[in-house]
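Kindly go through the following sequence and its C-alpha cells. Advise at your convenience whether the C-alpha cells fit the sequence:

___
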Amino acid sequence: MSSPGIAREEEQTTTAATAVPDTALVVGWSEHEKGVERLVGSFRAIPADRRVRLAKKTSNLFRARSSDRGPGLDTSGLTRVVSVDPEARTADVQGMCTYEDLVDATLPYGLMPYVVPQLKTITLGGAVTGLGIEATSFAHGLPHESVLEMDVFTGTGEIVTARPGGTERERTLYRGFPNSYGSLGYAVRLRIELLPVSEFVEVRHVRFDDIRELSAAMESVVTNKAFDGERADFLDGVVFSTTESYLSIGRFTDTPPAGREPSRYDGIGDKQAIYYRSLQHDSGTETDVLRVRDYIWRWDTDWFWCSRAFATQNPKVRRFWPQQLLRSSFYWKIIGLDHKYDLGNKIGALKGEGPRERVVQDVEVTIDRLPAFIDWFLEEVPIEPLWLCPLRLLDTEGAVASGVAPGERPWPLYPLEAGTTYVNIGFWSSAPISEGDEEGAWNRLIEDKVSELGGHKSLYSDAFYDAETFAALYGGEHAARLKTEFDPAGRFPTLFEKAVQAR
C-alpha cells in the first residue's frame, strides 16, 4: 500500500504478529456511528452564537488557554479503532483514539502507523491537525501523509470526507486540515496506512564531538536510508553539549543479537533504566535492542528527560515511584497543576530562587542551518539536552495527486517545502526571568533566531508572533479562505486566536 499518489519503496521488514488484538480497542462501525451521533447532537445543542471546543480528558498542548473557551463537544464515543485490515495494511481510526490504543490494536497484526509520535496520549486526530513527528519521519514524513481519507466535523455542523482524489472541496480540506489545530473542525475518523514491523528494533547510538559531523552523518542517513552499510528504519538524535551529541539509528530485526536480552525503559525490570541516559558513552558506537513496542514508547516513561523536574530520576525517589505513574500522562497532570497554580515559581521562591519562564518548544530549520542554530542555542539559552529529529515530506507525486500546483506548498498551513530536509529541534524546560524582561522574553528570542535562519516552529506551545508575521508563516490568505469555506460562522477560533491569543 502507499499513500495517495505516493510510491513508497518496497518495505524491507516482515510482519510479526505477536498476540491476539484486544477487542475492546476495536469498536466496529455501528459503535462508531453512535459516537458520531453524540458528537453532532452535542454541537446542535449549543446556541449558534457560541463558540465550541472539544471536551476531551487529555491534551498535549503546552500553550496557555483561556478559561472561557465555550461549551465542549461530546467526543466520548470517538476514542477507539474502528477496524483494522491487515491484508490492505490499513486501519480506520476514530479521531480521539490515542496512539497507545492504536499501536496496541495494530501490533498484533505485525503493523504500526508509519509515524508514531513519542507520547502515548497523543491522539491520531491531534497529530494530524497539529502535526506529530518521530524517528521514522526522515523516511515517511508526517502523520497526515499516510492518511488515505478522513471524516472531518466542520464548523458548518456537517461531516466532510476529505480525500486527495475527491471533489475540489474534499481535496481542499484534505490539504488544509494539517496544522489547522481545530480552527476548521475535528477529525472523527481517519483511514491510515500501516507499516509492517519486525519483533525487535536494533539501535546504534553513535557519539559525535562536533555538531557539524553529526549533521553531515544525519544528512547521509536521510539520503541513503542507511548507515555503515546497514538499513536505517529510524533516525533521531540528542545533543547534550557542544562536544557531546548522538545519533540513534534503528533498524527492524527478527532476531536480537545472540545472548542479549532486549532492553526496556518502562520501569519494569531495571526500574533505574532511563532511555536518554542509555545513549551516553565515551566514544564510537554502542548498540541496544528493544522489542518494537518498547522502542515505540522509549521516550514516554520519562517524557524524554522532563521527568527529572519531578525528581523521578533520583534513584532514591525512583525506587518507590509507582511503575504505573512512570508515564507522560501522569507528568502532564502535574504540569496542569503548575499551570493553574504556578507551583514551580512558588516552590522556587521558597528556595530563594527567582521566577522562571516556561520554554517548551519544537522548532525546525533546514539541515544545513542546524549547526548554526545549535551553536547559538547552547551559547545563549540555559537549557539542555536537545532532541533532534530529521524529516522530509514525501515525494511530490503525492502533492500532485492532492491537487497541488507546481511551486505550491503541498500542505499550505505549514511552511515545509517538498524535497528539503528539515531537522526538528525539541527543548522542554524553563529559563530564569531577569527584572525588566518583557513577557515571553526567552521564547521571543528563540522565535527571532529561528526566523532569521528561515525556520519555523510547531504551534502546540506558547507563541508570540504578531498577526502579520504569523500570517506570513502559517497560511495567510489561504487560511482565511479555508475558514470562510469550512467555518463561515466562526464556531471555532481562528488559527491565530488559538495559537497566539490562547482562545
